[in-house]
Amino acid sequence: MNNLVEIVLPNALDHGFDYRVPDGMDAPIGAIVTVPLSGKHMLGVVRGAGQGSVDPAKIKSILRVHTEFPALKPDFMKFLEWAAWYNGAPKGAVIKMVLPIADIEKQGRVHSPEHISAIHSGAITLAELSPEQKAATHSLLARSDKGFGISLLDGVTGSGKTEVYFAAIAERLAENPNAQVLVLLPEIALSVQWLARFEQRFGVAPVLWHSNVTPARRRAAWQAIATGHARVVVGARSALFLPYPNLAMIVVDEEHDGSYKQEEGVMYHARDMAIARAQHEHFPVILVSATPSLETVHNVKNGKYAEVTLPMRHAEARMPDIHLLDMRAEKLERDSFISRPLRDAIADALASGHQAMLFLNRRGYAPLVLCRHCGHRFQCPSCSAWLVMHQKGKSKASLHCHHCDYHIPMPGACPECKSENTLHPCGPGVERIFEEIQALLPEARVATLASDSTTSHNELTKIIEAMEAREIDILIGTQMIAKGHHFSGLAVVGVVDADLGLAGGDLRAAEKTYQLLHQISGRAGRETIRGSVYLQSYIPDHPVMRALASGARDAFFTAELNAREYALMPPFSRLAALIIDGHKEAEVIAAAKQLAQIANHDANITTYGPAPAPLYMLRGKYRYRFLVKAPRNINLPSYMRSWVAGAKVPRSVRIKMDIDPMSFM
Ligand SMILES: [Zn+2]
Ligand SMILES: [Zn+2]
Question: DSSP of 27-84, one letter per residue?
Fold first, then answer.
């Protein structure tokens, strides 16, 4: 039967289904179609010829080919197959990222083609670029003329990297009237300033793709992307798998950012997938960062990536002064967390009419509550995690698990020894710093910014706008405040606990801490104000602290790379993890043992585990982990896939493969 095609549906299966193409219908490979399935209508993509293994009488016919959307191109189809294979994901799960909307026929009203096309017919008024920025733009464009290529746009905060890649985007759009460009941005929902700058440059807003977009706008955005009308799309990592018919460039801003790794569902790294897509579809990628990932630094050193550097700070802004505070010498009062020098610096900044920012990467009031009488600690019943105390303003205190939805009101007495008034919050979260600052500087206007389920996206945006308008004197926040914001009145940045990210056995702890603190520091003194940064640390001699204090970024990267090379860790080797989880502990342990038995003992491959995961229980599931280390020339995805394929485990046990893991929890 030659009128059968295989159609992959958005589901969790690694195979498609055969459907019949009715006479007179054309359903080429890559076509987006609607088919019947169990009495429902489903979207799907034609993968190729049908397998013909099903009883012809049971095969159903395609209902509709969506010719209003161009068929997915062969190179993109190849990329999708590769992405599923590489990340150990079913093909259906990847198609679900291509077709993330159910109702594509319903017309979206938000992005009319006329509106979108304004982006190239409207005046592109690029800002006055400095000579360095002009040179950088030319270097990027010279590189991108040759099809696929990766460039790192490297420059300190405020050096004008955004203007440079805006100029490169504008050129790309001008030279090809159909070209589409994707910009990946972390925390895009809060990037109010970035969006304003974009609109100012291009005369129209870009098409947005992230989880805070309403369903109607999402549908409209998908339609604009899939028809090719959307010229510039700004999105979170999931924007990478959308069916752009004419994608001509991807910019990955803050390429080192941890949020590019998706840890749920299909586990993938959006930066790495952006590079792979560009390679399949033959277009350039621009990675942007002031503190590139070590993998990227390594690839620049070995000549795989081109490097374009912007050394100067734009306009009059200068680099901030960094003060490393040795907290062993600071005598803090009980339950206070802000040292005298930091407190004085904030007070001075406010007295001069400037603003301050305090950074602590911990939500809530206190990370742990302890009974002073019996030592009882509050733990989540479903996760291996302490409950975090929250107490916003005058509201009643409560205890929350940060891994699941579990929360309880703060009890009055200890549930263990029944003592009253013995429960003590240990350590600070941003809410506790807020309280301390209010007591120290009662006149100051203070706000906190943390991604909390209790705070809506609108509220967060309002806080950023208020900070920008100087209606806030002191902003206290988690790593959300690190991302790209430009506050003209900001003079002092305080890092409450610079050591926080260094705890735990994460291979990238030093690198990530350096990147985050460097990014935070870059918020201070972005215009004419002299900026000062105060890092509170109990380990001021740590290489990360010394590198931050001295500004010796490249020396730090070199030292870290040497340490990784010595330990044969990425980027000098490759890692993959297996995570085995399930509700029944005995089944999970049995599955882990079985996997250990069937592991292929290749002398080049080192297998660590099975071991209980550091986060042993998560949302009621028990978890075991393997970590596999291999030389770079070994085909690790294939090795992992064939290993997992050999395991016979009950349906209730799940085995997940994580290639190039970022989290080891
Ligand atoms: Zn107690
Ligand atoms: Zn929990």
Answer: --TT-EEEEEETTEEEEEEEEEE----S-GGGPPBP-EE-TTSPPPPHHHHHHHHHHH
- Over residues 597-613, the mean pLDDT reads 90
Closest listed ligand to the CA of 618: 2
Q: Looking at the CA of 421, name the nearest ligand.
A: 1
pLDDT surpasses 70 at 92: yes
Token pair belonging to 272: 């790495």
Separation of 664 CA from ligand 2 center, angstroms? 18
pLDDT one-digit tens code per residue, 533-555: 999 999 999 988 998 888 888 88
Percent of the chain with pLDDT over 90: 65
**Closest ligand to 420 CA?**
1
Q: Looking up tokens 């209606």, which residue turns up?
A: 471
CA of 612 from ligand 2 middle (Å) equals 17
Q: First vs last Cα of the chain: how many Å apart?
A: 50
Counting every residue, how long is the chain? 665
Please give the average per-residue pLDDT across 480-509, as a whole number: 85
108 touches 221 (CB < 8 A) = yes
What pLDDT does 318 receive? 63
CB 382 within 8 A of CB 619: yes
Q: Write the single-letter amino acid at 607.
A: T
Which two three-digit tokens encode residue 5? 């095609």
Using CA atoms of 328, 329, 330, 332 in order, give the dihedral in degrees to the nearest 10. Answer: 50
Of 315, 398, 305, 278, nearest to 133 by C-alpha is 315
Does 120 score more than 50 pLDDT?
no
Q: Which contiguous run of DSSP H or E holds residue 348?
A: helix 340-351
435 conformational bin, left if phi > 0, alpha if psi -120 to 50, beta if neither: alpha
Residue spans of alpha helices (H) in 453-552: 457-468, 509-521, 543-550
Where residue 358 falls among pLDDT bands split at 50, 70, 90? Answer: very high
CA atoms within 13 A on the CB side of 94: 26
Neighbours of 364 (CB within 10 A): 25
Cis before 571? omega within 30: yes
Please answer whether residues 502 and 459 qualify as being in contact, where contact means their C-beta atoms are separated by less than 8 angstroms.
no
DSSP state of 179: -
- For the cut 50, the answer to whether the pLDDT of residue 122 exceeds it is no
- Quick check: 45 pLDDT over 70? yes
H-helix segments, 122-269: 131-144, 161-175, 192-202, 215-227
Helix (H, G, I), strand (E, B) or coil at 214: coil
Residue 125: half-sphere exposure toward Cβ, Cα within 13 Å:
6
- β-sheet bridge partners, residue 249: 181
| Ligand 2: centre distance to CA 578 (Å) | 22
Where does the pLDDT of residue 315 fall: very low under 50, low under 70, confident under 90, or very high at 90 and above?
low
- Taking the centre of ligand 2 as the mean of its atom positions, its distance from the CA of residue 378, in whole angstroms, is 11
Confidence at residue 368, expressed as pLDDT on a 0 to 100 scale: 94
Distance CA 319, CA 313 (A): 7
Distance from chain centroid for Cα 289: 14
Ligand 2 mean position, distance from CA 406 (Å): 6
pLDDT tens, position by position, 260-310? 999 988 999 999 999 999 999 999 999 999 899 999 999 999 999 999 998
Q: What is the pLDDT of residue 121?
A: 37
Q: Which ligand lies nearest to the CA atom of residue 371 in the structure?
A: 1
C-alpha distances (whole Å) from 483 to each of 125, 287, 449, 477, 533 are 26, 16, 12, 11, 16
C-alpha of 469 from chain center: 28
Cα(413) to ligand 1 centroid in Å equals 8
Quote the CA–CA distance of 187 and 457 in Å, as a whole number: 11
